[in-house]
UniProtKB/TrEMBL annotation:
<dbReference type="InterPro" id="IPR036583">
    <property type="entry name" value="23S_rRNA_IVS_sf"/>
</dbReference>
<protein>
    <recommendedName>
        <fullName>Four helix bundle protein</fullName>
    </recommendedName>
</protein>
<dbReference type="InterPro" id="IPR012657">
    <property type="entry name" value="23S_rRNA-intervening_sequence"/>
</dbReference>
<dbReference type="Pfam" id="PF05635">
    <property type="entry name" value="23S_rRNA_IVP"/>
</dbReference>
Length: 120
């Protein structure tokens, strides 16, 4: 197992950045009228995940790290909801939804694991 030196070494951070790219690709397909609505909200929630992982990792204490991981997890939950709404509104296509949801699911599982370790 590779040594973790910086947040960039965390697989959860790496996958969450991939997820952000997938969300941007997905939301590119949304109607222009959604630019300041669902598109902006989804992008903000997605970007929040790796941003909070990075900030938490840079903080000095385990308690602060856990708090920022909880925030990242919460942003992931927001994004899950927003993806569901976009699907019900028939924005985007199934290929882009599948990729975004797959990455988000993977990130959420990893965050859950990290949080369970930080709780103990």
């Amino acid at each position: 197992m590779a040594q973790i030196v910086t947040y960039r070494d965390l697989v959860v951070w790496q996958r969450s950045v991939e997820m952000v790219v997938a969300i941007y690709s997905l939301t590119e397909l949304f109607p222009t009228a959604e630019r300041y609505g669902l598109t902006a909200q989804m992008r903000r929630a997605a970007v929040s995940v790796p941003s909070n992982i990075a900030e938490g990792r840079r903080r000095g204490s385990r308690k602060e790290y856990r708090q920022f991981m909880l925030i990242a997890y919460g942003s992931g939950a927001e994004l899950e909801t927003q993806i569901e709404i976009a699907k019900r509104l028939s924005f985007g296509d199934s290929e882009h939804f599948d990729k975004a949801e797959s990455l988000l699911s993977e990130v959420m599982r990893m965050l859950n694991k990290v949080l369970s370790i930080l709780r103990s």
